[in-house]
Amino acid sequence: MAIAQSPVWSTDIAPVLYNNCVSCHRTGGIAPFELMTYQGAVNNAFGMKSATQKKIMPPWPPDPAYNRLAHERLLSQEDINKIAAWADAGAPAGDLSKAPPPPTFSNNGDIQGTPDLVAKIPTYTSAAVNGDIYQCFVIPSGLSATKYIAALEAVPGNRSIVHHVLIYADTTGTCAALDAADPAPGYTNFGGVGTDKAIMLGGWVPGTAPLVFPNGFGVQLPKNADIVLQIHYPGGTVGQVDSTQIRFFFTSASNVRNVHIDPILNHLLNISPTLFIPANQTKTFTEHQLIPIDVTLLGVAPHMHLLGKNITTFGVTSTGDTQKYIRINNWDFHWQGFYLLRRMMKIPAFTTGYSVALYDNTNANLSNPNSPPKDVSAGEATTDEMMINYFIWTPYKTGDENIVIDSTFPVSIKTQGPLYGSIELFEPYPNPATQLVNIKFYLQDPGNISIGLYDLTGKMVRQWLKNEWVTQGYHVPTYSLSGLIPGSYTVRLNTVDKSLIQKLVIQ
After folding, report:
1. Where do the structural domains in the chain lie, given as residue ranges?
2. How confident is the model at residue 387 (pLDDT cuts 50, 70, 90)?
């Protein structure tokens, strides 16, 4: 019988790291250690094993079990197992002469060609000592005519300190006034750029691909607009210098289709209850918004602050069908992003968009900015909260749903048991239901849970479990629907730090 050989770095592990990890884990990168060399990998072998098995690395907050998105940063289960076996075998090197050549990285961006506009911040020295800093920089575009952005990319001036970049256009002059009032280069603002009139253009976090729209599509950049960058500099980077730039590529196509990036779901409109999280409590909120015309969805970008724990965004069509947009089971403000769909999606007229999010304002939330916890309401400050879902969209045209944004083959993910977390709520059955419904869920560990039924305004209409202790494993309780009005509802399963939802139609 043949004996299986342990994976080796040169031919098994290096290709995985080079393809998935070293854009951040390299000398001068944002990650705290390098994985470009065999020695760097050996020094962190068991750390890699743990982080990849827990799906912490590579960082990809969206749940691929809910919806597959473009340019996913995911490892296959085969690669995860390979890293674990390599670490357990003592991290053997193999024949180093057979290792692939390490990748090279350009300091001038990944998009080939000359950009039409480069917006570069003034040289900035980080002042982030212990806490993080969110510094906003204003760069006049100098455009005498409105342009349409076909692609853009961020090129950090110092990749070791730039954690994320949000890109806006401002035509009101508000951001320029804030900049002028601050003697330092730029000005500090946590939640945004200081005005809700700024137009979102895109975003960047380490490891992401440039934002490139299909041919004939583009985001409008108004003439005379100021380009505003909010850049996150982590604590401990004090004294280090940055000069990040954004490279814009405009489309010259005639009849370009305008791509909008709008907060279709937000905490200022149609949220239940009002966004207010009392101290020492967890709380779930539901947003909804009727979409009155046929639109084409290209992508989504959820946004919360430090109390956010998870968020699910979806649509329910006028015929009762559910469209899944995005689910993030473990929200991390520092890894928020813009997520394009693999293929454009038609949202039919009179679809209602929904978002359900859980917030944790207790000491158990290690990201809580207040100790002891304080009451938190909506606002832009670090100690405030937001619940926003940006939709990247354009008015629908026949055939849009056939336009592919990412044609690469999606990474295979594990399909048995809970996919990307310690808890999973499956689709109720039967669905539609009449008198009885079965609610199937899985718990990796025993704990207290609540299960309830909510109408589409977010009001609870039936509570089946309330903070009850449930053992580990699969469970399929059956509940009565007697007395409920026919229509669309959501089933929610809540734990201390998670809130999962599934749609249920009652006939």
Report:
1. 9-98, 117-255, 258-405, 416-507
2. very high
CA–CA distance, 96 with 392 (Å, rounded to integer): 46
Question: How far apart (Å, rounded) are the C-alpha atoms in residues 426 and 267?
Answer: 28
The percentage of the chain sitting over the pLDDT mark of 70, rounded to a whole number, equals: 97
Neighbours of 13 (CB within 10 A): 28
Q: What angle do CA 339, 343, 349 make, to 5 degrees?
A: 90
> Residue 179 is inside which H or E element, if any?
helix 174-180
Work out whether strand 473-475 and strand 295-304 pair parallel, antiparallel, or are unpaired: unpaired
> What CATH class is the domain 117-255?
mainly beta
Amino acid symbol at 276:
F
Instruction: Give the tens place of pLDDT for each residue, 97-136.
Output: 999 999 888 777 778 789 999 999 999 999 989 888 999 9
**pTM to 2 decimals?**
0.79
Q: How far apart are CA 2 and CA 11, in angstroms?
A: 20
Cα 411 to Cα 68, 80, 242, 421: the distances in Å are 10, 12, 35, 18
Rg (CA), the chain: 24
Q: Give yes or no for a contact between 420 and 329, defined as CB atoms under 8 angstroms apart.
A: yes
CA neighbor of 51 nearest in space, from 20, 9, 26, 18? 20
What CATH superfamily is the domain 416-507?
Macroglobulin (MG2) domain (2.60.40.1930)
CA distances from 144 to 140, 157, 199, 224, 246 (A): 11, 28, 18, 6, 19
For residue 302, give the nearest of 261, 343, 342 by alpha carbon: 261
Task: Tokens 């000359």: give the residue.
Answer: 114
Cα(117)–Cα(136) distance, rounded to whole angstroms? 19
Could you read off the pLDDT of 178-209 as tens digits, one per residue?
A: 999 999 999 999 878 999 899 999 988 877 77
SS3 of 271-291: the string is EECCCEECCCEEEEEEEEEEE
- Averaged confidence pLDDT in the chain: 90
Establish whether domains 258-405 and 416-507 are of one fold. no
pLDDT, tens digit (0-9, with 9 covering 90-100), for 219-253: 999 999 999 999 999 888 999 999 999 999 999 88
Determine the 3-state secondary structure of 479 from DSSP.
Answer: strand
CATH architecture of 258-405: Sandwich (2.60)
Q: What is the pLDDT at residue 413? A: 64
